[in-house]
Amino acid sequence: MAATIKDIAKLAGVSTATVSRVLANKSAFFSEATATKVHAAATELGYQKNTAAAELVTRHSNVIAAVVNSTKTNFASQIIEGIQAEAHQHELNVIILYAGDADSAQQRRALMTVIERPVMGILLLSVDLAPENLTLLQGSQVPYCFLSISFDGERLPYITSDDWQVGYQATQALIKQGHRRIGLAGVDRDFHTGRQRVLGYTQALQDAGITPKAEWIQLGNYSYDAGQAAMQAYGAQTELTAIVGASDMAAIGVMNQARDLGLLVPADLSIVAIDGTELCSLVQPQLTSVSQNFYEMGIAGVQQLRSIETLPQKITPIKLVNRQSVRMLSPE
Amino acid sequence: MAATIKDIAKLAGVSTATVSRVLANKSAFFSEATATKVHAAATELGYQKNTAAAELVTRHSNVIAAVVNSTKTNFASQIIEGIQAEAHQHELNVIILYAGDADSAQQRRALMTVIERPVMGILLLSVDLAPENLTLLQGSQVPYCFLSISFDGERLPYITSDDWQVGYQATQALIKQGHRRIGLAGVDRDFHTGRQRVLGYTQALQDAGITPKAEWIQLGNYSYDAGQAAMQAYGAQTELTAIVGASDMAAIGVMNQARDLGLLVPADLSIVAIDGTELCSLVQPQLTSVSQNFYEMGIAGVQQLRSIETLPQKITPIKLVNRQSVRMLSPE
DNA sequence: TAAGCCATTGTAAACGTTTGTGTAAAGTGC
DNA sequence: GCACTTTACACAAACGTTTACAATGGCTTA
Q1: Among the four A262, A286, B110, B233, which has the fewest Cβ within 10 Å?
Q2: Which residue windows are coiled coil (chains A, B) (predicted)?
Q3: CATH architecture of B62-161+295-317
Q4: Is A71 a residue whose pLDDT tops 60?
Q5: Which is more confidently placed, A71 or A102?
Q6: For residue A45, what pLDDT is reported?
Q7: DSSP track, A219-284
């Protein structure tokens, strides 16, 4: 149905080889005269290149696949923007796939659609791959890199923030303002990222001579609901004066629940969020955060895929952004 | 490098045709014995199918491309979930592309990467295609459908809410609570969607015997900033008692700016948002909204692509969701 | 004028699949 | 034991490109 280079060749009275060369602009391989003939024929036929066919023979693609764990996590968009920016600089195209939230079957589906097609590389944004899917990924010949997630033992390529530092600095920011009874809400200790954040949090407290109680840490999956549940668990009479939200969403959950319990932020309760997406400045009061550089992560991810030798791990910087959710505690 | 069906054929001692049929599970075309041989060989070689090659010969693909206008608009994720759900039911896969915000070059890039490859159809989420890119899209043989956007004259296939009704119902909801001086903030009158919302808004006022002043309508691009700017234009001394935000983001912008101007929501100013994404229940007070059924839009979009005959336009339902940002105005 | 070179173009193989057609062997009914 | 059907497989063409190699012809140079 659609026009092919064969049709163009016939119409222009040349061979398909010449058409291919003209269209690919392999100059010094054709004359001006034929070039114009070919181009005229191409536009007349409304030719659309079939890249799949071309990729089949050249065995090389220019699309990067970004696999995202869920539509719910909002930081993904910042990473994707970084990916796009860097990719476009190098004439690469980006496609995005959603892999669902801890849904092995959907992960597999997303992975399959990219592995089975020619892609130049795969970026996995904060996705906890099920073991069988990891095997799948490794079995394919496609280069890959995890973003915004880290791993313990296995030597997987990843780019992320220093999660220990994230936990440490969020906690320390509160300590510096005089807080000593500080909670950590909505963190997931099943994975490396969460474990590191807990470790950083604990160390910051210990460095200030504080021994955290077990109930100060409320586990969860970084979601709004997890933040809410954590705050419910702390209760209106909590001894805590400050809470670190494991994510922006969790922090907002904490804040809204605190309000429902009659606690004012930051008057009664200070909050530091982890992530620092635009959500932090949308809510009232705006949330002070330990902000990750997601955009940079995206850029680094593309660079990692492009580099031959695989420098396996990389850490992107974080910074504390002061907004309105932390108050200085007067020492009593 | 990677194993092909040729390798499997050699290892299993059969022809590639047989391998293909076994792998595609075209039963009644092979015996149990060969099937097991082939499967054994396939796993031994770590075979990964090259779908691009298969699609080349079958001339038919099972991936749907969703083109999104920007990473910024948050409702997209709900549409995408709808798309995924419906697509997966029919063994279709979904890839997502970002087309940038009113950036013709990036639109073109996104469009090209999908048109040049075998895709089964293209869904365009709220993207205002530049004229040249629309021509491009129409020139390709790929079926397509616009989502969450509508058009005036041209007969383009689209699925969206009734934007006139959206404007009407949002305004009417405020009128019913006794408001008579009502603004509309952040709406874009350059496109059909925005124009319809303005028309609905105006009609609702007129039906209540109210003649809207020109300055009640503040134009913008549906963004947080647009909402903020609109509220700044209204000013602290505004005669308005209520405002319709052209989107969730715009409504939040209005609300936060109002607070900065010393106005309390909803005590001094009532707000109705348009869209009704989860953002509405994240902020404080939670925003009353005219909610669109984005999930349903995604489902309908996939169905539209799958149906041969193209029933060009479809309207998805909306509903008013009462939350906390509107107060009843006592008649004086 | 022959040899050599360069610019331009064509020929054909290859990429990894699917599938229509052909065919040998095995099974069926009489 | 014959004609027939069925089963199970192989052969080869096709999809739309790219590209190595060959071929052509004109031009330069000695």
Answers
A1: A262
A2: none
A3: 3-Layer(aba) Sandwich (3.40)
A4: no
A5: A102
A6: 95
A7: E--SSHHHHHHHHHHH-TT-S-SEEEESSHHHHHHHHHHHHHTT--TTTT-EEEEEE--THHHHSS
Q: State residue A108's pLDDT score.
A: 96
pLDDT single digits (tens) A222-254: 999 999 999 999 999 999 999 999 999 999 999
| B108: three-class secondary structure by DSSP | helix
pLDDT at B43 over 70: yes
Output the pLDDT for position B73: 59
CA B40 → C1' C26, Å?
Answer: 26
State residue A330's pLDDT score.
75
CB–CB of B167/B201 below 8 Å? yes
Fold of B163-291: Rossmann fold (3.40.50)
Which residues in chain B belong to E strands, given as ranges?
A: 63-68, 93-98, 121-125, 144-147, 158-161, 182-187, 217-219, 242-245, 270-275, 288-292, 313-316, 318-321
Q: Dihedrals φ, ψ of A295, to 5°?
A: -55, -50
Distance A163 CA to D15 C1' (A): 50
**pLDDT for B246-291, tens place per residue?**
999 999 999 999 999 999 999 999 999 999 999 999 999 999 999 9
At the topology level of CATH, where does A61-161+295-317 sit?
Answer: Rossmann fold (3.40.50)
Q: What is the DSSP letter of A4?
A: -
Class of domain A163-292: alpha beta
A56 and B53 in contact by Cβ < 8 A? yes
Using the CA of A54, give the nucleotide whose C1' is nearest: D17
- Per CATH, B62-161+295-317 and B163-291 having the same topology is answered yes
Residue carrying structure tokens 């060989």: B41
A18-53 residue pLDDT tens: 999 999 998 788 999 999 999 999 999 999 999 999
Dist CA A194 CA A190 (whole Å): 7
Closest by Cα among A68, A170, A160 to A122:
A68
CB contact under 8 A, A116 and B48: yes
pLDDT at A321 over 70: yes
The C-alpha angle with vertex A107 and arms to B160 and B147, in degrees rounded to 5, equals: 10
How many whole angstroms separate alpha carbon B94 and alpha carbon B87?
Answer: 7
Asked if A282 lies within 8 A of B284 by C-beta distance, the reply is no
Q: Please, which positions of strand C sit below 7 A from a protein CB?
A: 7-12, 14-20
How many Cβ pairs within 8 Å bridge chains A and B? 109
